[in-house]
Design a protein that fits this description.
Strand order of the largest sheet: 1-2-4-3-5-6-9-10
Order of helices and strands: EEEHEHEHEHEHHHEHHHEHHHEHH
Number of helices: 15
Shape: globular
């Protein structure tokens, strides 16, 4: 396993990679890095694949661009197209977690010739909503739930990242704790933020690291987000309405490549995205596997690496 920088058309990306054989891209989410895939990079390489996990645009050792609009889904998708070409390949399987799952689904939608299969963790495929931009739909969902705002709505203001930048170690510890499968239900996040509170205040002040997170591993995250900040990662969320505007041509499009999906039974994301799980077969005709992992939370590939590795290898071998 090695870490290196690779220049693509538009930016320099830092990647973690191992192995040789068919290319598998592993796309992280928020607030993670390529290192969240270490167990999968190792397992896939041992099984005869070239496993590559990039730090995505705005994260870790990859370049950070200044304009908010440069974090749109078209840019994130384009970065992976460029990366495949820079690696000397003309096709690959793409695997994503959290925000990376959304990117992976769009890779399969937009370039099925290049991304010939897709596996996603934690976030199901969510087709483009024809009735208007997603932030308005999220506000309506929160109003119906009567539980305050969905956290994504609180990420929209220009200064939303400042609370995270003020103390990256505390912010990261709270986020990993609040979405972990080992955290008791009363201490997990619901994804909704009551009036008068913010995302971080809803997590316990005495939040501890999840059982799978060692102090040295956590220190890698803290160092990366202390150096790079949270502005760019939150700009991904601030581009949601822009993404909706730019993808009208994908309205009602279905994913035609082979696909697989796994989610943790205790993943708080299911509180506000779970309805899409039941409808996935309607949008993905070749959905070969859809599994709920008992007891697992959101950080599924780090919480339960053996089960996730087995799931991914079974899917890859089915291809």
């Amino acid at each position: 396993m090695r870490q290196r920088h690779i220049r693509t058309d538009r930016l320099t990306q830092q990647i973690l990679e191992a192995g040789s054989g068919p290319l598998v891209l592993l796309v992280h989410g928020f607030p993670e890095l390529s290192i969240s895939w270490r167990a999968q990079v190792e397992a896939l390489a041992a099984a005869g694949f070239h496993a590559v996990a990039p730090d995505m645009r705005g994260y870790g050792g990859t370049e950070k661009t200044a304009e908010r609009e440069s974090y749109s889904i078209l840019h994130l998708f384009g970065d992976l197209v460029d990366l495949v070409r820079a690696l000397g390949e003309d096709r690959c399987v793409v695997v994503g977690h959290d925000w990376g799952a959304a990117v992976a689904w769009h890779c399969a939608l937009m370039r099925p010739d290049l991304f010939t299969a897709v596996a996603a963790l934690s976030v199901p495929f969510q087709p483009r909503r024809p009735k208007g931009p997603p932030t308005a739909a999220m506000a309506a969902l929160a109003k119906r739930a009567g539980r305050g705002d969905l956290y994504i709505s609180r990420f929209q203001p220009e200064d939303a990242h400042l609370a995270f930048d003020a103390d990256p170690a505390t912010a990261l510890r709270k986020m990993f704790h609040a979405y972990d499968g080992a955290t008791p239900a009363a201490r997990q996040s619901s994804g909704f933020i009551p009036e008068g509170q913010d995302f971080l205040s809803t997590a316990p002040e005495d939040a501890t690291l999840p059982p799978w997170m060692s102090e040295p591993h956590f220190a890698e995250y803290v160092a990366a987000f202390t150096a790079g900040g949270f502005r760019a990662p939150l700009d991904w969320y601030r581009c949601l309405d822009l993404n909706w505007a730019q993808t009208a041509w994908l309205q009602d499009a279905r994913i035609r490549v082979p696909a697989a999906f796994m989610v943790g039974e205790r993943d708080p994301v299911r509180h506000y995205a779970g309805a899409h799980e039941a409808a996935m077969q309607d949008w993905i005709p070749d959905l070969r596997s859809q599994r709920v992992l008992p007891g697992a939370g959101h950080w599924i590939q780090q919480e339960r690496p053996d089960e996730v590795n087995g799931f991914l290898l079974d899917f890859l071998r089915s291809l």
